[in-house]
Design a protein that fits this description.
- The protein has eleven helices and two strands, in the order ααααααααβααβα.
- It is an all-alpha fold.
- The chain has a two-stranded parallel sheet.
- The protein starts with 17 loop residues before the first helix and ends with a helix.
- The relative contact order is 0.16.
Length: 190
Amino acid sequence: MKKQYKLERCKWVNLKNEIYVKYHDEQWGEPIYDDKKLFEMLVLEAFQAGLSWECILNKRESFRKAFDNFDLEKICKYDNNKEAELLQNSSIIRNKLKIKATINNAKIFKEIQKEYKTFSNYIWKFTKNQIIYENDKTSSKLSDTISNDLRKRGMKFVGTTIIYSYLQSIGIINSHEDNCFKNSKICDIM
């Protein structure tokens, strides 16, 4: 009889929340190069400020619907009427500053795409396309550098802690804990 192993996960994962477990197992720490997904994660991380990631993740589908499936072109054209509509949408986080920041950040994201051909080229250049393996941090010199650059460009809600979380979510930083089955050392022997 084959022995069954219980998969160990990072201790922050709420095992009772299927959405959270799936996010951890299938997305968190996996490298993302697609600009649409990079933009979605940037928006969601900004909305997380002051809240739990689980709260944002539970509302992810509502955010997708409310923000036109994170269509950059559409968000860049949002007007006061759309802002008012979003502020009335109880299925998302109704924070005026974060909604305004999303529209503002979309325009800057687009400017970065023009400058670097893709946002992916921009964000991955900071590590020369390398993945950083570290855990037990909430910021680093890397997140400081990227945060400062994005703020200079005019982005909002992109402080070093938010950017560090963003880099984890898009796989530039792989922070799976040492005992987690997604940790690269464990993955190599599985």
